[in-house]
Design a protein that fits this description.
- This protein is mainly alpha-helical.
- The protein has a single domain (2-146), classed as Orthogonal Bundle (Arc Repressor Mutant, subunit A).
- The protein contains seven helices and two strands, in the order H-H-H-H-H-E-E-H-H.
- It has a two-stranded antiparallel ribbon.
- A hairpin with a 6-residue loop joins strand 1 and strand 2 (99-103).
- Helix 3 packs across helix 6 and helix 6 crosses helix 7.
């Protein structure tokens, strides 16, 4: 009887869980972008950091993490790698406790070179998800950003 109840619970979660589906979509779509961007030596997660740094004037790591909903340790690892590759620079802010992240000329060039590959990955992902799902995903993300959660 207990085993049946556990299986029933497991089946319901497996059938209805949004988190497992969103995580599956994340892994598959991320794989599409990472595969396409591989010739440039950048992952889509790093490209997203470059985009935020380019769009915000020398943001703090906290701001980048908030916009991307990225954990501090994950962001720190990415930024460290990107600094080592010469794509980003860390500058001290108004006091020694504050840091600002800036994009370097090498990072700007990489961002520009990534555009056609990003467009290819975008098109592949849209084809994979379909127009309706792509639109729904974009609307959901826009709603989260608009609600001030970024």
């Amino acid at each position: 009887m207990e085993r049946e109840m556990t299986q029933t619970t497991a089946r319901r979660i497996a059938k209805d869980c949004l988190a497992v589906r969103v995580r599956l979509l994340n892994r598959v779509v991320t794989g599409v972008y990472d595969d396409v961007l591989r010739p440039l030596g950048i992952k889509v997660s790093q490209l997203n950091v470059l985009v935020v740094v380019a769009n915000y004037d020398s943001p703090t790591p906290t701001k980048i993490g908030k916009v991307l909903h990225m954990e501090k340790s994950t962001l720190s690892r990415n930024v460290d790698r990107m600094v080592a590759r010469g794509w980003l620079r860390i500058a001290t802010g108004k006091d020694v406790r504050t840091h600002r992240v800036t994009i370097t000329p090498k990072g700007r060039a990489l961002l520009e070179k990534s555009l056609p590959l990003w467009q290819q990955a975008q098109e592949e992902s849209e084809a994979l998800l379909g127009e309706r799902v792509t639109r729904a995903v974009c609307q959901a993300a826009d709603r989260i950003w608009a609600d001030g959660k970024s």
